[in-house]
Design goal:
This protein is 20% helix and 25% strand. By secondary structure, it is an alpha+beta fold. The protein has a 6-stranded antiparallel β-sheet with strand order 14-13-12-11-15-16, with no helix packed on it.
Length: 537
Amino acid sequence: MSSRSDTSFPSKFSFEYELFEGDAENLRTVVAPPPQSNPWIDSGALKLTHRIGKGPFGDVWMATLHYTEDYDEPREVAVKMLNFMSEEQVQPFMAKFENVFYKCQGTQHVCWSYGLSVKNEKICIVMKFYEGSVGDKMAQLRGDRIPLSDILRYGTDVAQGVMELHSQGILALNLKPSNLLLDEHDRAVVGDFGIPMLLLGIPLSSSDLTLRLGTPNYMAPEQWEADVRGPISCETDCWGFGCSIVEMFTGIRPWYGKSAEEIYAAVVIRREKPKVPSGLPCAIESVLKGCFEYDFRNRPSIADILFALKNPNATFGDSGWICVRDKSELKGSDVQNCNWLFLKDKLRVGDYVRSRKVANLNKPEDMSTVEGTIVGMNSDMYVLVRVHGLHDPLRMHSSNLERVSLGFGAGDWVRLHGSSLQNSRSGKKQSSVGILHSISRDGKVEVAFLGLETLWTGNCSELHMSESFAVGQFVRIKAGIALPRFQWPRKRNAWDTGRISWIFPNGCLIVKFPGRLFGNVPCLADPAEIELVQFRN
């Protein structure tokens, strides 16, 4: 094993080096990011030279970095200068950046960051300079399209980088070919380590930026209004990843030629999806289609995407990953709703399980719900469930089941104790009613609440079960509420009755009023403010 260092750095700063593994004829390069102890860079050590790019958050500059007077040779770096921040917003941003900076130390597939500085009264994120990006390479090729072999290779690199970020609780939120940088070995790295996420909770001066946390062409539906239609999650990055892969295949940016307002109308309001080209390997086509599910709970995880990239022709894999384009491929299995949810929570013997709940189901729940304990598992993703009252265990497919721990399961409607309520970015208090996203076997939970841009984390002891709602039910604002969170029509000096047409992952409802001849505009509703309406026959 050998290493090399750059003598332009003083001893108090870290060195960049590479490690080589393997025998002499089959060396594998392992990029080792420098462990850096301080993210703050003195403005005098940073010399801007010329602007090389522009994005939604500011300008990108070429610069030189001088650490001390002891070394004459500067280091060439790239600088992202954020243009929209006011003076009072700088300190909160710097505190959040410091946390992300330390978490990203040691990552191999994420752009190296040297730290943060302030130039011309603007925040500057100092990063390693890369000669090009996947977007640049596309521009040099005929038709702006990349060969399949390179797409799989770059996609694998990027998926590993996104997984590194997710393992640290960081969302990228701005995946696109121009942000997928290429190093000197033609490997792709994630070039934007969560700048949109750093802006969460910081009021922005531009009304345009308050709606967008990323680049419009690559943004998931929940990304536009995260506290209302969200929250954002790891699956949000899957949408941007899918957009990037589709662009590599086609050479055309998703929603090319459309304005931000037109993209918002298409993606958020009409629920349109980027078109996945035909003729792709089975696993790639299926996983890309999954990336563009409107409800992020139905999207694959980055781990699922990585498996598909490494096994592009797979239908079933040893990892338990499933890729089914046509349910007839299951040859008579009892899979009713094959999605990706069950893959994110591996079942095991001893788990208490129930029939999986289907989000936005436009019919009453099946009364024949199965509940029981897993007593056996097969290699073909089937499990044996012991159900009370039945002599023999039932053989069921994992995709039809979900784990229940301490009385809670994913998809449950829950209410949060008042002492745990928080305020959202808009200044409004989060709703007290939300939808459980996940629960670990020891009771740690993630819950989506209206009013929060990200998943709330805590313990199930802070929750209790709440009344659930379903598409098709009739509801109205509770009589005791004089000023609801969202506008709601009145009828004869009382709140009108509407019908639920959609439920977002955070429990926010879209309600339509089919009986109104005029002004029949759908309304949003806070689940904590509404009640069911029962009609007598």
